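The aim of this short unit is practical: by the end, you should be able to scan a pair of folded records and say something sensible about each. We start with the first protein, listed as its amino acid sequence and then its structure tokens.
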Amino acid sequence: MQDGLGTTDEADVPAPVPLLAPVDGLPPVVADRDALRATAEAFAAGSGPIAVDAERASGFRYSQRAYLVQLRRAGAGTALVDPIPLGSDLSDLAPALTGPEWVLHAASQDLACLAETGLAPSRLFDTELAGRLAGLPRVGLGPMVENLLGLALEKGHGAADWSRRPLPQDWLVYAALDVEVLVELRDVLTGMLDEQGKLDWAHQEFEAVRTAGPPAPRAEPWRRTSGIHKLRKPRQLAAVRALWEARDRLAAERDIAPGRVLPDAAIVDAAVTAPDSAGALSAMAVFRGRSQRRMTAYWWSALAAAERLDPADLPRPTAPTEGPPPVARWADRDPDAAARLTAARAAVAEVGAERTVPVENLLQPDLLRRLCWTPPEDGDVAGFLRKGGAREWQIALLTPALEQALTVRSA
């Protein structure tokens, strides 16, 4: 029933149909070379796009390797491939998967681990990114499948420890269902984007994701330790750095998620407390457990090394930065730049509202800040954006508004 405003009563919306089992049944896990080659032959003989997904064990393992790869294609069905017994080498599949479009959800999360197995797309469709560009309010796979296809996906295993062997049956069902309807979802989203005049935008975005290189290593990654904002003294920061680096080495060696080796809270607590001996360290709550007591000498060695540092070698209170200073300081350091940024943000927000595209998908915030802090001397805003990695559709949409914003001065 519709009310006087033309909206649909929620009671009239059909309940989503639960997807409880793969339509073709649960396939056996591909775990040897003969099965992998047979899978490659089946997918080479299939037709249309290929739905792809990968499962990692991010909260459990240090590495970001794929512990399961799911594939589905018309004429080939679904394949569940275990990379681990195959030495994480799935290159036998590469010829069959090269050429057809891959359909992934949040592709940037999976492409790196897939590349480690020897698999990379030559064309890409990202359903999450497509949903953002289409202006959908919720772009998780479950909500999109429910709202656009009327189906309810299984929940509950996305954050599981996929390094576990054998993989439980219900996890495998969940994994198979994740690729069950990806191509159908892609078709619906393609129609929506085409109707909105955004399909070319989407193709540009997908290509940017596909061709993006690995992210540059963070400078001083230890500064991301949760709770570090409580610390101001250089010697405390040195303690955090020493424990973080010691933890990172151990986590990489054992392939265990760093937080499971030593919680961030323990690192910060040790830096604040500054124990004066290994015994005092082992008396602290988090370091008192059996597993941590065995590592007391290791952790104490890191803390002691930090304590012996020459003052000139202590970390600075704030992280070194490239480019503009923190925005909070702009008004004092360059009021005109602050005025430009305020105007530019408003302009981008207005374009986003008009086109029903999230602001963060219109332009990278860092690129916008750089533009406003140091506008191009020649006035070539389009060239500045292009050099900074903006796509042509973004440049065409935003350049006129940003050129106007850059003329704003502080009062």
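Turning to the second protein, read its sequence before its tokens, just as you did above.
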Amino acid sequence: MRMIGLLSGTSHDAADAAVTDLEFSAPGEITMRSRGLVSTPFPPDLRAELLAALPPGTVSAGHLCRLDTRLGRFFGTVAARALAGPADGRADWIVSHGQTVHHWVDGARAHGTLQLGAAAWIAEATGLPVVSDLRSRDVAAGGQGAPLVAALDALLLPGPGHGALNLGGIANLTVRLPTGDDGTAASHAAPAVLAYDVGPAGALLDEAVAWATNGESRIDAGGARAARGTVDRTLLTRLLDDPYYRLPPPKSTGKEHFHPGYLRDRLPEPPPTWDDLLATLTELTASLVADACRAHRVSDLYVSGGGLRNHRLMARLRARAADVRIVDSTAVGVPPQEKEALLFALLGFLTVHGVPANPVAATGARRPVLLGSLTPGRTPLRLPEPVVEPPRRLVLLRA
């Protein structure tokens, strides 16, 4: 099947559509042939409307309705561009993550999750069937609904001690474990992983830049301002004292917790300079990730996400985790910008083949479940016969 994986993340700066051909090439093996990526920036007015709906803001049902429609139309436009471009006018399914506007977590328990971007608009724009709402079923089964990227990481990571880090709005980590969940050798079972949201990355950094520039920018390009600043150790200690960090995995978080008000409430009087604040927030993320790498005995770390372009953050991470080999995800065959969009293409492919795709060891769900809801395209849905054997290996190719 040719799948188009569609994603907009917690940084909500663009929507990415990855086109890939997937097939069950052998028992327990999937071949993924990537055909290219289309990335489209959010229209400024749509992004502003989205930001107004995120915590700690409160919005009306009418606002959410309009936002759901506008996001669906935008995603439909991006999917149509991918269909006409790297898909060469032919695809079987579109898989849309949608835009998270709320992830309802209370302590260690997730109760619900809401992604907007109505799938009907995507189906109408492309004529193709759509898999959407991929997180809710895992939450209904007692899971966190995140991090679903562990499903891809389990197939990508070369062996025990290897980890995958995504630096988006939130930093999430996946670590390959030595054995399967049932204690059998990893080669005889689906690879076992530990995965969870470590803490904030761009979520707080971008907000601090927006304050410093009166909204003119949300990115500290390359981490240049953070590099000029000095870490405020008192503020860093205060930030590290968040109860979330003491929760054991599985756990997930988002901008519902790490929102602009969260940071404002923790600033001392007088507050640090903007450069010192950015240096401190950079150190916070580097410290959290380095501590997690030590706790889980990570030897090799493959990084993806927008945080890769923050040279200061990467330098501080390498300094704090000096015994870890840190490279980008290209080293395991996946370009960093494509990774999450390819993930959702894979999850949708598994769903339409009847294969549960939630990584229960990562999300904490009671059992494996089929993810997502199906929206027909212009023709009746035709699903293949279910595949019985879960994937244990992913072969990556480039078109």
